[in-house]
Amino acid sequence: MSEPSKAVLMQTNKLCKTFSNGGVQQHVLKNLDLTLYKGDFTVIMGSSGSGKSTLLYAISGMDKPTLGEILFEGQDITGLSNDQLAVFRRKHCGFVFQQIHLLDTMSVLDNVLSSAYLVQKDRKAAVNRAKQLLTEVGLDASKWMKFPAQLSGGEAQRAGIVRALINTPTALFADEPTGALNSAAGASILGVLTEMNSRGQSIILVTHDLKTALRGNRILYLRDGVMVGELQLSSYSGADGPERQEQVRAFLADLGW
Ligand SMILES: Nc1ncnc2c1ncn2[C@@H]1O[C@H](COP(=O)(O)OP(=O)(O)OP(=O)(O)O)[C@@H](O)[C@H]1O
């Protein structure tokens, strides 16, 4: 039986981003036509400076493209004002970065709730969801009233993921989410992301790291602002270790990574 076709999350049409650096124009994204699908764990790879973060910021409404169109669930977001984009992001996008940026003066729970209250009117429901999500990512009640300085890097990133998911975003965007963590903490964060994706959360993640890339079911490779490679994989199960690793390595080696 053939697999049912996936719903489209977003499409870009001739997406371009140009920066002006000291009067010199740098064309970072060049006429990108890209389709991303709901439920996918999409990984964007490419060498340093290839435009991965720029792409992530453009498709998540964090930055505006220079030219081209972004259709997010069919809605063209390129014409939105800054205020409209802020509303769009709050409703549809969760963000996880290498630097976690929790507010130092707030507890873990309040950090999460401060994002929830921007969107959700039902405070009791928000508190319940925050506690449930914190528990699901491995932060039990003993951590909820701690301040960011009292957390390990991995715990802080777990809180960051909960903050990103608290408003049930259509897509979770992640830029090197394990980049600042040791390998054990990084692996546990990848476990959390994999689990969220297995429950249907669409994830778009930028990374340099092979172990991180293995979690994706679709790997896109960017070179000088152009998409030059794509690898489709099964969803990550953990049971397909060496074979999957070899497949991804070979894909990257072909691209000169
Ligand atoms: N705000 C900006 N102003 C000017 N130039 C920028 C800006 N943001 C990015 N660039 C330039 O665009 C290019 C691509 O940057 P980007 O951060 O998207 O690359 P990347 O592939 O994510 O790199 P890395 O893997 O090193 O993080 C770089 O040459 C960078 O200097």
UniProtKB/TrEMBL annotation:
The keyword Nucleotide-binding applies. GO terms for molecular function: ATP binding. Keywords: ATP-binding, Nucleotide-binding, Transport. Residues 10-249 form the ABC transporter domain. SMART domains: AAA. The keyword DNA-binding does not apply. Belongs to the ABC transporter superfamily. This is ATP-binding cassette domain-containing protein. It comes from Paenibacillus phytohabitans. The lineage of its organism: Bacteria, Bacillati, Bacillota, Bacilli, Bacillales.
